[in-house]
Amino acid sequence: MWAQGRLSATGTKTFRIDHPDDPENKYLLHYCSEGPEPLNVYSGSVTTDAEGIAWVQLPDYFEEINKSPRYQLTVVDDAAGSEFVQVKVARRIKENRFMIMTSAPDIEVCWEVKAVRNDRWVRTYGAPVEVEKQDLEKGTYQHPELYGLPAGKGIDCRPDPIEQGEVMVRVSGHRAGQIELPRRGRSHAVPSCGTPACRSTFPCPAKKNPSGAASPQTVSVQRIST
Prior knowledge:
The protein is mainly beta. Helices cover 4% and strands 41% of the residues.
C-alpha cells in the first residue's frame, strides 16, 4: 500500500509472516515502535584502530533530512579479564560522519543514531502529536466500545437523514461536485454499526450510458447545507 501524505492506524502496526517454526499452522507478528516524533534510525558496528579511534560514515543525505541526532554506543568485548573498556562520541556529526573513541585499541563498538526526521515534507507540513477533531468528528469515538459506549457513538455512524438541499458528492474516480438532492430516490443502507446511513440514487453527470443520458449511481452524500 502506498500513501501520498499521512498514514494512520487506530490499532497496532505489524508485519505478519508464516511462522518459521510452524509455517503451516501459525503466523509470526512483529510490531512497529511508536513515539511522538518521526524518527529515522541508523545503526551498525565499527572497530577502533590502534589509537582507539574510529569514524562512522552516515549516508550522504543524513544532515539534509535529519536533525537532533541521539547517539548510543555499546562496547563488544569478550576478551578474558575484568577490565572494562570505555567508549564515547569524540566528535559530533559533521559532514555526515562522527568519531568514536575507546579507552583501548581494536575494540568493536555497536552504534545507533536516532534523529528527528526533517526533510522538506516534514518542514512544510509538520508532524503534529495532538490534533483537534474536525466538526463532523467532534462528539464521536474511533472505537466507542473501548469507553463502554454504544456503536452509534462511532465516528463512521451518522444517523441524521439528509434532506433536500445542497450536498457535496464524492464519486470514486470523479471530482467532487455539488448537486440538488431530490427527496425521491433516497434509500437507506445499514452499516456494520447498525445505524441507518442515508444514501441517494441520482443521475451522475460523470458517467454516461450508451444513449448519452446520465446513468444513476448510488453514492454516499454528505450534507453541507439545507
